[in-house]
Amino acid sequence: MKKNYTIVGLIFLIFFVISFITNILNSILPNIKDSFDLSLGLSGFLPFSFFVAYGFMSIPAGILIEKYGEKRVMIISFLVALLGAFLFASFPSFQVALPSLFLIGIGMAMLQVAINPLLRITGGESNFAFFSVMAQLIFGAASAISPYVYSYLIENLNEYSGGGGVLLDTLSKLVPPEMSWVSLYWIFLAVLLIIIIIVAVIKFEKVDLAEDEKSGAIQTHVQLLKNRYVVLFFIGIFAYVGTEQGVGNWISEFLKQYHNYNPEIQGAQTVSNFWLLLTIGCFLGLILLKIFDSRKILIAFSTAAIISLAVALFGSGAMALIAFPIVGFSSSVLWSIIFSLALNSVPKNHGSFSGILCTGIVGGAIVPLIIGTLGDFVGLKFAMTFLFLTLGYILSIGFWAKPLITNNTINFKKD
To answer: Which of 324, 337, 321 is nearest to 246 (CA)?
Structure first.
């Protein structure tokens, strides 16, 4: 099919919005924990409620896209997320937080299933790893920006007395004085409304996916699951998202517990740096993917992530402030390489396979919950060592993956 860079640009914008909304939980988790007086285990249910939606909705989303088309499903997904954000913003409580985060997660899951096959087909199969890393770059940039938005709102809304402009005046009337972090969900409402309008009015040419890009019937999914590589790559996506969220969600709380850093200042800054270095790592990844086989890059970056995580957990406070962001840098290309290796390892049914892979995003629900539950018994530091298992599995992919199509690289040899 002819490449369609308008759709590629729209996909990049959607990646930005998904990231901005999804990963703010990394920064506000300590606030929610303190506001609702939660244990580490109960705090783990917050990311669980969000990411479990991926396990619930990813495969049905593929079927909906097949029946109703990408544009309509995108608009529906944003509306569902809008409802979730409105509930949390209007009724901030732990009981409301869980279903509202689940609704936001459903919206994000539907979007992920829609945009990944679209990116592969509209950007070109052999360029999928490259464009996927570029999307991860945009994803990381949004996640680096959102903690600064959080810090700005917290610093200006705490004990607000007026005179801060229309935005702060409005938000101060909408949020409880002792829970200024809730203002973020009113910001999400505005962002979601804007993106709904953009998707609705933009000329969205119908993208005819090839048969192997479409999400097939249940029998197709069952048949795919008989392929051991499908299962192994599903575990790979599970391990990656579990690692990303297992680190991101607990950075601020870890720094607070073990090094007495303020979660609203140093904690938010470190979370932002985690995503900022993940973004910078994507720049390097874009270059490296044009030079080296993606499997070699996967091995190198996952090894670096293991080493930097060890330093973050067992080093000094100053070392942790540096090492946690380096974990982000080392994780920068892992998602895109795993996803592209997976789709390029099967000859057909990529739409159905994408749904199965996106179901693996449920790792972002399970792993932080495991860490939180273990943390109540052995402490957060030793609970986070669970991440060495997930990173070890990601490392192994570089050794056993056998893609049918490898990433395009520059040939430096002269004829």
So the answer is: 324
Spatial distance between the Cα atoms of 165 and 214, rounded to a whole number of angstroms: 48
Taking the chain (415 residues) in runs of 10, the rounded mean pLDDT of each run is 70 88 84 90 90 83 79 92 94 92 92 76 68 77 85 84 82 87 92 90 65 60 81 94 93 95 91 88 78 89 97 97 96 86 80 79 92 95 97 96 70 46
Signed CA dihedral, 148, 152, 153, 158: sign only: positive
Q: Buried b vs exposed e over 84-111: b needs ≥16 C-beta within 10 Å?
A: bbbbbbeebebeebbebbbbbbbbbbbb
Q: Which amino acid is at 284?
A: L
What domains lie within the chain, and their CATH numbers? Answer: 5-400 (1.20.1250.20)
Radius of gyration of the chain (CA): 21
Angstrom distance (rounded) from CA 44 to CA 379: 14
Burial class (CB in 10 A: 0-12, 13-18, 19+), 404: exposed
CB 68 within 8 A of CB 120: no
Q: What is the DSSP letter of 406?
A: P
SS3 at position 95: helix
Q: With contact defined as beta carbons under 8 Å apart, do 274 and 139 qualify?
A: no
For residue 240, the one-letter residue type is Y
Q: How far apart are CA 316 and CA 381, in angstroms?
A: 13
Q: Among 262, 267, 238, 236, which Cα is nearest to 250's?
A: 267
Look at the block and give the residue holding tokens 């996803």: 339
